[in-house]
Design a protein that fits this description.
Strand order of the largest sheet: 1-12-13-14-15-16
Strand content: 15-25%
CATH topology of the largest domain: Deoxyribonuclease I, Chain A
Number of domains: 3
Number of strands: 29
Helix content: 10-25%
Largest sheet: 6 strands, mixed
Shape: globular
CATH superfamily of the largest domain: Endonuclease/exonuclease/phosphatase
CATH class of the largest domain: Alpha Beta
Distance between the termini: 74 Å
Number of helices: 19
Length: 823
Amino acid sequence: MENPSFHAEDHLNDLGPENSVENVSEFDPFAPANAVSAPVQHRPFRPPPPPPNVPPRRTKLTVDPWVQGLTPELVSLDINSSPRKIKSESNNTQNTLQRSVDFNHRPKSSSFVSYINSGAEQAVDVETNYNNVNTSSTNPPAVHEIGNSKFLDFEGATGRNEMTTKLLSDRDKLMQLFMAKRQDDYTSTSPYKVFVGTWNVNGQLPNEPLNPWVASEIDPPDVYVIGFQELDLSKEAFVFSESSREEEWLRAVKKSLHPKAVYKLVKHIRLVGMMLLVFAQERHLRDITAVVSHHVGTGLLGKMGNKGGVGIRMKLHSSTFCFVNSHLAAHLEEIQRRNQDYNDICSRMRFPDPDGQSPFSVFTHDVLIWLGDLNYRIDKLSLEEVKDRIESERYEKLREHDQLTLQMREGNVYIGFKEGDLTFRPTYKYNPGTNDWDNSEKCRCPAWCDRILWRESGFNKMHTNIHQLKYQSHPSLKISDHKPVSSLFIIDVKVINQALYRKVYEEEIRRLDRMENEWLPTMTLSQHTLEFGTVKFQQAVIRSVEIENTGQTPCHFEFIGKLGETQFCKPWLTISKPKGYVLPGDKQDIEFEIYVNKSTSPSLNNREDRIEDILILHLVGVLEFFLYFIITVSQNWESTITIGRIDKSSMLNVPKELWRILDHLYHNARYQPDLFQQPGLHEEMKLIQENLDTQLPTVGNPLPGSNHSVAEALLIFLEALPEPVIPFNFYPACMEVYNDFERCRALLRSIPVHHLNVFNYLISFLQELPKHEANGLDLHLIATIFSGLILRPSSTQKKQLGEARMERIKSTAIIEAFLNHKV
């Protein structure tokens, strides 16, 4: 008889390039100054139906006659322009991310030490995963019309009728809102079986079959969601975000998928050691659309990817799904840091809308499943008490001391999430290769680190129901110090009845026609002036305004630039919803966030800009209707330590803030484990910043907060310098002589004396750190961390990916050479 697993592997054909979905990432180690994005492919959500005599068809993007001559696959919309302004881009065309679609919503900084180029614009790379429909045809398409919407029907090379729609117009977007409100009238539910698995593999290779975990059920699931953590613990993966382990584990999962079905890879994404895979049965692929991904690093400066999360969103029929795989901060006592990592992922993970509207957060989905090594431990019990309760299987009593359960109960994290009963042994920590608890020198206490939680949308609960069938661990897999965990769900998915959809659509479009003919839009605001108080560096201040549609027709609003300006707001301001729709009688909150970082602070420090602005809110279609916002602050701008310059007039020969930070680290942090490898806490960073602003430099006066927070303050200070320690104009020459230390030293002797003082002072301090083994630092790691801060290119000097990587290696070699020589 034919081997079933071999048969399944033969049919594991991944989606081709035309179906792939590119990552949208804020962690790009070598992004050039003007990053080039791939063409943006737009596709409407579910298009309105054809006339009743035309059967429902699959869809593919086409283009109106007003953009004839443009290649459909390369058409992209400039969302800050009018709906008819469209531009064609080739694969090599630069596409700078507009402020209004800034998915890096609150960047703590635009660079992370040597892992990200400072100041690099993060271009959005969006491609939507839709059905691969053959559109070749020799017959001209027939045009059908319903209201103002056009549909093209043609006979393709496949011999089947295909239907395509034009790019979404404003009217089509309004129809989406109307149809969403009436979805109960044309949808029913269908159950789908979803397998979710998570495993921290501790940097090991997949040298044992994964079938006991991945194919543990009798019947094959419809969808697989599998997450890994610590896929690769090497320094190379950490610095360059590249790893051969990715392919090895992907291949191992493919071989282990259920043999009774044929699966294809829908999407996968990796950030350092975190990887998330989504597979679906081949028969479901045509019903999966709008697949995009994003990842967020929560390490130092909010960018390092050793901790953080990776996410994938998709649409199955008419239900939206979001899967997040995360690896949160380790160690028993770091509850607050784990909570901070969770909140950072929630606030910064954004999935782009193919139609150019506001991006989706993790919570704007019908189904949200969160998996990973969450690292919450068991508190306030001795090791013996924990093991005793495990051996007697008193898991409920043990869970009373589970940090995650307690934090959820207090409302600190995972609000609205659910988790199944923990009826299995804790999944951490084991001696690798065994089922025995850790008996190493550290002797870690057992804990349920590896978890799977879910959350249903607050809306449409009648249609989206999640039923957990199983929640279990798989102790037979022994290569790691963690055990894999799985959960099996039955999820009711919204499926559209095409005949009912067509009927409801025709009713709604007639209603829209009447409304447009009889009424003009009108809107009121809760306030017209926004007062933000004191604004400080890297401390967000948020205000909100409620808008209400007081008319009888939908309002399409958007913020527009003032006369002669290309942007509708200043770069230090972010608007949560720069354009959108409000239906009659509805209200909507818009958040305005001021966040000053190293990119926007220089103009404020130099008094070239002030934190004040006038915003114009325009109702589309009503030429004379404008609403004005006035942005003010009570104290315009409080310059802080991290916005300093290397001042030649300083009495200390180095900036006082730098002296205080290094003095604290030298006296208090030389023996700190994981120094410069673990992020600080946000609240402590604020206290440190306040202290450096208000206190005079005195010997023996320690800074507030943990050593990790003070260490991160040093990195932020160096990163925020408008001119780095080694000035920009010396950067090209340094790249030329990187392998000749004597020439490098001679070159740096010619930099301005106050820069040279800082360089020598900093190198002298860094040379002391490897003398203390407890901190885990060596000269190469120190050079890797600090090279991107001390010696970095300007925005005009940045190179493309390959060259940028080589220059990063050269700058690291230069700093390491100085660390190896006496200053």
